[in-house]
Specification:
The structure holds 2 protein chains of 2 kinds. By secondary structure, chain A is mainly α. Helices cover 57% and strands 0% of the residues of chain A. The longest helix of chain B is centred in the N-terminal third of the chain and has 16 residues. The chains are: A mainly alpha, B alpha/beta.
Chain lengths: 81, 406
């Protein structure tokens, strides 16, 4: 598991009390109880935690695996700059 | 009694005196105040009544996303009221209404948002959904799956009294069978407390005995103590209650509503008298039928005298048979939730034929010459009907009348 994924699972556990072991990263987060409001808040927390601007073009992601990929892409792009 | 009667079948509370209506009422009967000193660095102290409330019993962490304290307390009180009413499964969702009063909605969320914006931090994306005034009603509707009328009344200090009155009308008109009605307020945050202090309507804190800071009807009264909490009632048609074998606590006898249409903050006896008379007419009761009045009684210099003048004028010679107290002296002024909390107190007074005092009123103002309850646990053996007054900034007056069910 990538560090990003571990950190994301940690964020979700801390904010929503959801056991990381219960989350399948390849299933939509809505299946684990995160509705659109919780997702909006999660994005906010992700931006704070990773010190990134989450790209508008990627707000449609559904799964944790996709989220981790976006976070890694943004951080890589920042480092290249 | 008729099948179209509206009855109260459940009560739920999150209050400065706790979340058990019977225990809270017992404390009020004893004259026990829940008002305390509130202090924040850089701000003058205030006398307030806060509610010891934590949401874990009612919400998972995930469910708390975007839910302000005001909605948390509203949901908790509504769930307890439904339990008390033995709310059944299988009610047609479209026949369920939710009628909630709130003055300021999610004050904490709004204040946090302002703070963040001012200090250059990012504002939570859920500030609006948490702060909007109708959030408490919406959360209750989601829990109860109420698909009928789900309304929010923001009429300052009369908000939840009006919500209850409107719920009863919708039931009596046959629009719905059952409703959750009440109010919630949670505004003990620095910006809001400071704004109320600036208006100069708050009680001067009594350093020696903070619980006595708010002194309705007393010669030395100086204003009210802000309070927080939620109070909910389940109202339904008598037919609906009978059909499901529900516990009936009291009958909702009627309501009277008026507006002073004179001044934003200065109350008018004429307007209050119209609301009192409207309530008597709607409930088919005469002044001598009313044994107890839970007064609006905010302990402002002007307000208490005007309310007593209105009562004296409408009651005339029958005033001697009326007993009056202001429980705001003990639970504070819950603003948007005040009418509902005081309706709960009035319901319990009717059930137990016993009413609370105004313990902080030591030296009654001659301008407030009505028969005040001075003793604790005042026994009212002949009590059959009672009223609760709520008179708002903005001039809207609401009087709720309740009668015993026997």
């Amino acid at each position: 598991m990538s560090n990003t994924m571990t950190e994301l699972l940690g964020l979700i556990q801390k904010a929503y009390d959801i056991d990381p072991a219960s989350i399948d990263p390849h299933k939509p987060l809505s299946e684990f109880g995160l509705d659109s409001l919780a997702l909006a808040e999660l994005m906010f927390n992700i931006e704070d935690h990773f010190h990134i601007d989450y790209p508008e073009s990627r707000t449609g992601v559904q799964t944790l695996a996709e989220l981790a990929q976006v976070v890694d892409e943004v951080r890589a792009a920042v480092q290249v700059k | 009694m008729s099948a179209r009667d509206v009855v109260i079948s459940g009560l739920g509370l999150v209050s400065p005196h706790g979340d058990d209506p019977a225990i809270a009422f017992e404390a009020l009967l004893r004259g026990q105040s829940a008002i305390n000193l509130w202090t924040r660095e850089g701000l003058p102290p205030a006398a307030v009544a806060s509610a010891a409330f934590s949401p874990e019993r009612w919400f998972t962490k995930l469910q708390l996303v975007g839910v302000d304290r005001v909605s948390q307390m509203a949901v908790a009180a509504a769930e307890m009221a439904r339990t008390d009413a033995r709310w059944p499964e299988g009610i047609d969702p479209e026949r369920i209404g939710v009628f909630i009063g709130s003055g300021m909605g999610g004050a904490s969320a709004l204040e946090d948002g302002y703070e963040a914006a001012r200090s250059g931090r990012r504002v939570s994306p859920l500030t609006v959904v948490a702060a909007m005034t109708n959030a408490p009603a919406a959360h209750i509707a989601i829990r109860a799956r109420a698909e009928g009328p789900v309304y929010t009344y923001s009429v300052a200090c009369a908000s939840s009294a009006l919500a209850i009155a409107e719920a009863a009308k919708a039931i009596a008109a046959g629009e719905i069978d059952i409703a959750i009605a009440g109010g919630a307020e949670a505004l003990l945050v620095p910006g809001v407390v400071r704004a109320w202090q600036a208006l100069q309507t708050l009680a001067t804190p009594d350093a020696a005995d903070p619980g006595r800071s708010c002194r309705p009807f007393d010669l030395h009264r100086s204003g009210f103590a802000l309070g927080e909490g939620a109070a909910m009632l389940v109202l339904e048609s008598r037919q609906h209650a009978q059909d499901r074998g529900a516990p009936v606590r009291v009958r909702f006898a009627g309501s009277g509503i008026s507006c002073d249409a004179q001044h934003m903050t200065k109350p008018q006896a004429q307007g209050q008298m119209r609301a009192l008379r409207n309530a008597l007419r709607a409930s088919g009761l005469s002044p001598r039928d009313i044994g107890y009045c839970n007064a609006h009684g905010t302990a402002t210099r002007v307000g208490d005298g005007v309310e007593c003048e209105a009562l004296r004028t409408v009651w005339g010679d029958d005033i001697d048979a009326l007993r009056v107290s202001s429980t705001k002296s003990m639970h504070g002024h819950l603003l948007g939730a005040a009418g509902a909390l005081e309706a709960v107190v009035t319901v319990l007074a009717l059930e137990q034929r016993c009413a609370p005092p105004t313990p902080s009123c030591q030296e009654p103002d001659p301008a407030c010459a009505v028969p005040l309850i001075r003793e604790t646990k005042a026994s009212l053996p002949d009590l059959r009907s009672a009223i609760s007054n709520s008179f708002a900034f903005g001039g809207t007056n609401v009087v709720l009348a309740f009668s015993r069910n026997d």
